[in-house]
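Run: sequence + pyridoxal-5'-phosphate -> complex structure.
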Amino acid sequence: MYGKFQQHLAAELQSIDEAGLYKRERIITSPQRAAIKVAPGDDVLNFCANNYLGLSDSPRLQAAATRAMQEHGYGMSSVRFICGTQDLHKELEASIARYFHTDDAILYGSCFDANGGLFEALLTSEDAIISDALNHASIIDGVRLCKAVRYRYANANMDELEQCLQQAQAQRFRIIATDGVFSMDGNVAPMDKICELAEKYDALVMVDESHSAGVVGATGRGVAEQFDLYGRIDIFTGTLGKAFGGAMGGFTTGRKEIIDMLRQRSRPYLFSNSIAPGIVGASIEMFKMLEESTELHDRLVANVSRFRDKTVVPKGQARIRVQLSAGHAPEHIDRAVEAFIKVGRELKVID
Ligand SMILES: *Cc1c(COP(=O)(O)O)cnc(C)c1O
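>> structure
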């Protein structure tokens, strides 16, 4: 049997490669940070990690992870509700709820799992999910797993959202699902307008804060802070794999009964392993750091404005995708801008 299937796969792989879409992994031989080593030994600057607060190589988080591992062990070997919940897991869930000003939180192995296990656990074919067209793949998959009626609106298009809400009056409950910051263009969802429409048309609001938490808002607490929407967003999902340390893990946080129900019905929570104690301990320390001081967020904001001030952006449709970090030094940013200007002139897209 494999012979024919092998030929089929080889042909598919070749067409992916010919389309220029074949993904090749770059091997990094240093910790994740602004200045990294890539095999075979080149030193390069990194402007494409989600390491927004520069915490991926934080000595304080490494120490907290080591301490947690020594005191609480290496792995949990269980799902949460059988014998996979330590005091540390409860402490981290409380830290997340405190940070987002919500009632409670539930941990997952990733935000992909948080989104995958959200909708199906809460809604049925009587209900509606209204989703932004540029939502992350994990929201799309989570919606697919749920029997609710699906509506989709063009990215951040509030007229289309309103039309969807009007049509969805036919269903029992409605939920609007959106990324907080969309990864393609880095635009922030118009959460103030989304909440107004949700209230007008009696819908719940779910926002995925994976790219926005730690980043947007005056002190980096995400879209609820940015738009002053505390108490008006029902469900937040997020990742511990980006600004929040960059290791792994995800969460859903929000209203009490919603989190209670996820603990009863959410399949990735019920059937997938607990987060390892080292990551949980470091994540508790990470929220302590963010509560003690806004220094890292301030540095990120300063780096973003330094980069924006100095960049020459080509006219037209061109797009330069750069991810800045609190871990970048001013010299790193200046070097990157110089490189962009040099290449831009060589390609004659800027003068
Ligand atoms: C990165 C990302 C995820 C996935 O998070 P993981 O914890 O890596 O699974 C989910 N949603 C959005 C919007 C993301 O940007």
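>> summary
DSSP finds 15 helices and nine strands in the chain. Residues 119 and 143 are 6 Å apart (CA to CA).
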